[in-house]
Amino acid sequence: MPKGWAAIAAPESAAQWQCAVDALPPWDVRADAGGRVRIAPPQPLPPLKVELADGAMSFGDDGRVEWIPRRAAAGFVLSNADIRPQAATEFGGDVFVAEGRERGGRHEGAILRFERRDAQRWRIHRLIELDAMPVAAARSGARDWVVLTRTGLVRIDLAAQRPQALHRNARWPRLQPQTLQPSGTGWLIGSDHGVIRLMAFGDRFSEQWLVPERCRRLSAPQCECRPQRLER
Q1: Per-residue DSSP letters for 68-115?
Q2: Cβ–Cβ < 8 Å for 51, 44
Q3: pLDDT by residue (tens digit) across 35-61?
Q4: Which DSSP helix (H) or strand (E) runs through 16?
Q5: What is the C-alpha to C-alpha distance for residues 22 and 11, in angstroms, rounded to an integer?
C-alpha cells in the first residue's frame, strides 16, 4: 500500500458513488523505468506507436495510421482511416489495435488486426467487437493482452484471437477509467475519480478502491477530501 493511501470497499449506494465522483481527484497508474507501479497525477500520454523488427507503426488521435519501414521498402499512410486507436500491441509480426469512440451518446469499441502480408503490404481485419469503448491495455504473459474499457476488463488471447471478460462494473463510466497496470496477480486502474484495485480470487476479481487516507469515508456528510501531500 502506498504511504498516505488506504484501501476501501467499492461504493455500493448511490450516495457513496456521488461522494466518490464529487470528492476524489484524478490519478494515473504508471510503471517507472524499473517496472514499479506508481500512482501520480495525470500526465499527457506519449504518441501511440508499435515497434517491430523492421519498422514501426504509429497512430494519431485523428485516425492517421502510418507504417514506417527501416529499410528502403514502401511505407504507407492512412490519413482518413475511420478508427480511433486507444492502445496497440504486437504479436507474431501482426499489430493489434484497441479502438473506439463515443458516437451519438453510445460508446463503441473493437479490436483490429493489422495482418502482415509482406514487407510492404498489410491487411486490416475487424477482429472482435467490444461492448464498451477501450481506453488502455497491458500485456499479460506472452500471448494475452488485457484491455481496459469504460465498463471493465477483457482478456484478448492474441494467438487464438478470442476475448474473455474478466471483470465488469456498469458504474465505471462515471469514474472515467484511463490507465491500467498489473499489480501482483491483480490490476490497478487510474481514473478521473480515484484508483480502482482488482484482486484475483480464483477465476474472478474482487474490487476495492485506493484513496488518500483523508478520503476513506465516502459517505455524507464527510464527502470532502482536503488537500494533502502524498508520498508516492
Answers
A1: EESSSS--EEESS----EEEEEEETTEEEEEEEEEETTEEEEEEEEEE
A2: no
A3: 788 898 998 888 999 999 989 999 988
A4: helix 14-23
A5: 13
Which residue is listed with cell 465498463? Answer: 151
Q: How many CB atoms lie within 10 A of CB 69?
A: 16
* 3-state DSSP of 136-202: EEEEECCCEEEEEECCEEEEEECCCCEEEEEEECCCHHHCCEEEEEEECCEEEEEECCCEEEEEEEC
Q: How far apart are CA 78 and CA 31, in angstroms?
A: 31
pLDDT tier, 188 (very low <50, low <70, confident <90, very high otherwise): very high
**Cell for 28?**
494515473
d(CA 173, CA 196): 13
* pTM, full prediction: 0.89
Residue tagged 514501426 (cell numbers): 56
Distance CA 57, CA 98 (A): 14
3-state secondary structure of 43: coil
Q: HSE of 54 in the Cβ direction (CA atoms, 13 Å)?
A: 12
Rounded Cα distance between 76 and 101, Å, is 24
